[in-house]
Every structure is written in structure tokens, then in C-alpha cells.
């Protein structure tokens, strides 16, 4: 298996090499941040717990970037794996090959991140490093195994379309469970009944995981419903095309915006909590972590935008060949980002404020609501603006992928 992987890597394209570097760099950054967060997390002290949480928040957008990078150049990789399937490779072997590739990249990156952590924390605890490396490597292997699942189903590229579904009950239950666990860990940190000092940390981490997966699944329906509504009411050709493109594949946008929505959620929740007095330095560290997390989320959106342009280059080239100006297609990209990001970021901001206020209804003062609402609106605007700026930055790549030569690609 390793020999086959080496042979395939010798003929990798430039995009494949970029994808490999992104995965390794993301795995290294996630390992360093998680190890540092665990070493700083002290749930007997409010400031220490918020500092550890701030660093842990940074690892989530990095993980999203790694998963999004694993999907870059999907069409090229699927053609490569399809050749193996047609040559006699079994579905299990294709899955193992993808898992091996993703696992090795994540292992190399996480080892580098652990080395940087060990050099910068000579007196700090090191017992969590092997556990973090194993977790990051496992995540990379699972992401790599899932990347080629369409080839496993059909090596000949047969397109199977199913009816788009609405949200299932379990999707909404994941969101509710995530919000509940996050609020529970925040209320009882330092005196959680199970797990001692780190019990609240485990509960908050589980809540984030449930919330991330739940919002991704539920956002698919939310994005599709909003795009359908916009498409029915608009009279602009650009908005109509953007709405139909988003409605045709809402899951891809939900996956790309999941980390952005989580950042907006945490930012709105932090703003609602910061309306009260105390711990200004710790809250400043949380805000700094959110800014870095938003930048990393924007990088994940850049990867998603590149993936979409590469996968739809023939369609865009056909539109240009039929007379559609390239400037209009650039406007379509920006409107796609606006249509997809607005409902997701707005709902995440509202949810973040509710999570903080509901457990504190007895002590939360009315005059604090103004700051909480302003912070939620600001986080929504920042998330939507980031998505639109990424779409604007993708215009030069759009010109490259919409050339007439792409019709023969």
C-alpha cells in the first residue's frame, strides 16, 4: 500500500502538493494549540480557564481548514483513484489508501507541532502530547478515507442524484445537545461533579463537537430554504444564478461555513458574557483568539472557493462561451457567499446570545442586553463580510478557470 502511495505521489499536480502542505500545516497548528490549551487550562481559576478555552477555540477552525483542504482538487483525485478501481483495486483498498495518505500527512504535521510545543514549553506538562498526536492523526485518516467515498461507490463517475432532504430530528437534537453541554460546562466549571477539575473542560469540548456537527447538518436545510426564497423573489439574473447554485449544493456551503458559524457563535456568546463586570484581560485573550479563528475560517473558505471553481470550471467556461461576461460571474460568486453566509451567521449569533442569557436570567441585567445585541450584530456582519471578501479575492482564479480551454479539460 505504501509503495502504491509513493508511486502516486511522484506524479502529483501542483494543487495536490498545495493540499498536502495545507493538511500538514493545519495538523501541526492544531496539535500545538490543543497541547498549549491543555497545559494552560486551570478550571479553578476563571482567567486560566478562559485562556485555555481561547486557545482551544483556535484549534477548531484549523481542524475545519484541514478537512476542507482534504477536499481540494476532488475531481483530480477521484480520477486517480478511479484508475486504481478499474485496475482491480477493491473498495476497501481505496479507502485504506485514502486513510493512509491523510493519516501520514496529519502525523507528520502533528509531530512538527508537538516538537514546537516541546521547545516552547520546556517546563510545561508533556503527558498530553501523545494523546493529541494520536487524535489528530486519527482525524486526518478519517478525513482521507471519506474523501474518496464517491469513487468507492462508482469508479466510472456515474452521477447519482437524490432528493434534497430537510432537517431530520437528529440534526436538531445535535444542536440542542451541543448548546446544553456548552452551557452546562460554563455554569459548573470548577465544581463539576464528574471528572474533577477537567470535567467541565470535557463537557464544553463535547458541546462544541455536537454543535459543530449539528449546525453543519441543520445549516444545509437553512441555506437551501433561504436560497430558494431569494431565487423566487429576485429579478436580477446574477442573484437568480447565485441562488440556484447555492440551492443545488447547500451541503458544501454548510460544510465550509460550519467553522465560521461556530466562531460567530462563540463571539456572540463571549460578547453577552463580557457585558458583565470582571476578567477583562481574559476576555481580551478570548477576543484575540476569535480574530485568529476568523482568519483561519476565512482560509477554509478560500479553499472551498477554490474547490468549487475547479469542480465547476467547465460550467463557467460554457457560460463565458455563451456570452456571459466574466464580471457578471464575479458578481455571482459574491452573491453566492452572501446568500449562504447570512442565514447561518445570523442564526449562530442569536444562538450564542441565548446560550449565555438563559442560564443567567435571574442575575442578567437589562442594561447589558444592548452590548450583547450589538456584539451579535457585529459578529454576524464580520462573518458575512469575510465570506464576501473571500469571494471577491477569488475573481482572478475565476478568470483562469473560465477560459475556453477549460471546455476540453
In words, what does this structure look like?
There is one protein chain. The protein is mostly helical. It folds into two domains: 1-160, no CATH class; 211-409, no CATH class. 79% of the residues lie in helices and 0% in strands. It has 16 helices and no strands. The chain has helices spanning 2-10, 14-40, 46-70, 74-86, 91-120, 129-147, 149-153, 169-187, 199-233, 237-248, 250-274, 280-311, 313-321, 326-357, 369-393, 395-401. Helix 3 packs antiparallel against helix 11, helix 5 (91-120) runs antiparallel to helix 6 and helix 9 packs across helix 10. It is globular and about 65 Å long. The two termini are 30 Å apart. This is FtsX-like permease family protein. It comes from Nonomuraea zeae.
Distance from N terminus to C terminus (CA atoms, Å) equals 30 Å
Count of folded domains: 2
Question: By helix and strand content, what is the structural category?
Answer: mainly alpha
Radius of gyration from the alpha-carbon trace, in angstroms: 22 Å
Mean model confidence by pLDDT: 76
Instruction: Kindly state the percentage of residues in helix.
Output: over 70%
Attribute tags:
single chain, 409 residues, mainly alpha, 2 domains, transmembrane
Amino acid at each position: 500500500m505504501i509503495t502504491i502511495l509513493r508511486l502516486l505521489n511522484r506524479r502529483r499536480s501542483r494543487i495536490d502538493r498545495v493540499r498536502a502542505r495545507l493538511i500538514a500545516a493545519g495538523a501541526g497548528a492544531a496539535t500545538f494549540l490543543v497541547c498549549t490549551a491543555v497545559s494552560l487550562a486551570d478550571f479553578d481559576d476563571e482567567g486560566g480557564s478562559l485562556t485555555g478555552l481561547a486557545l482551544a477555540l483556535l484549534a477548531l477552525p484549523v481542524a475545519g481548514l484541514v478537512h476542507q483542504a482534504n477536499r481540494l482538487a476532488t475531481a483530480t483525485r477521484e480520477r486517480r483513484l478511479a484508475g486504481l478501481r478499474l485496475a482491480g483495486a477493491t473498495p476497501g483498498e481505496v479507502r485504506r489508501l485514502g486513510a493512509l495518505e491523510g493519516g501520514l500527512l496529519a502525523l507528520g504535521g502533528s509531530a512538527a507541532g508537538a516538537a514546537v510545543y516541546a521547545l516552547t514549553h520546556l517546563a510545561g506538562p508533556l503527558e498530553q502530547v501523545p494523546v493529541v498526536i494520536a487524535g489528530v492523526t486519527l482525524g486526518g485518516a478519517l478525513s482521507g478515507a471519506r474523501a474518496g467515498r464517491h469513487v468507492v461507490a462508482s469508479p466510472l463517475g456515474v452521477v447519482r442524484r437524490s432528493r434534497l432532504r430537510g432537517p431530520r430530528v437528529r440534526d436538531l437534537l445535535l444542536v440542542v445537545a451541543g448548546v446544553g453541554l456548552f452551557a452546562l460546562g460554563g455554569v459548573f466549571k470548577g465544581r463539576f461533579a464528574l471528572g474533577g477539575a477537567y470535567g467541565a473542560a470535557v463537557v464544553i469540548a463535547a458541546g462544541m463537537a455536537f454543535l459543530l456537527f449539528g449546525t453543519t447538518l441543520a445549516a444545509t436545510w437553512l441555506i437551501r430554504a433561504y436560497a430558494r426564497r431569494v431565487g423566487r423573489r429576485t429579478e436580477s439574473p446574477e442573484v437568480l444564478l447565485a441562488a440556484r447554485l447555492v440551492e443545488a449544493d447547500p451541503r458544501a456551503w454548510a460544510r465550509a461555513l460550519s467553522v465560521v458559524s461556530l466562531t460567530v457563535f462563540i463571539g456572540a456568546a463571549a460578547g453577552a458574557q463580557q457585558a458583565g463586570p470582571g476578567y477583562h484581560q481574559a476576555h481580551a485573550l478570548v477576543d484575540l483568539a476569535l480574530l485568529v479563528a476568523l482568519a483561519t475560517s476565512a482560509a477554509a473558505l478560500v479553499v472551498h472557493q477554490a474547490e468549487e471553481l475547479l469542480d465547476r470550471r467547465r460550467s463557467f467556461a460554457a457560460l463565458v462561451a455563451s456570452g456571459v461576461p466574466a464580471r457578471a460571474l464575479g458578481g455571482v460568486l459574491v452573491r453566492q457567499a452572501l446568500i449562504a453566509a447570512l442565514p447561518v451567521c445570523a442564526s449562530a449569533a442569536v444562538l450564542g446570545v441565548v446560550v449565555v442569557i438563559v442560564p443567567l436570567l435571574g442575575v442578567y441585567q437589562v442594561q447589558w442586553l444592548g452590548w450583547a445585541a450589538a456584539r451579535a450584530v457585529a459578529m454576524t456582519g464580520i462573518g458575512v463580510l469575510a465570506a464576501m471578501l473571500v469571494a471577491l479575492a477569488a475573481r482572478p482564479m475565476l478568470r483562469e478557470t473560465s477560459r475556453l480551454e477549460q471546455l476540453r479539460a
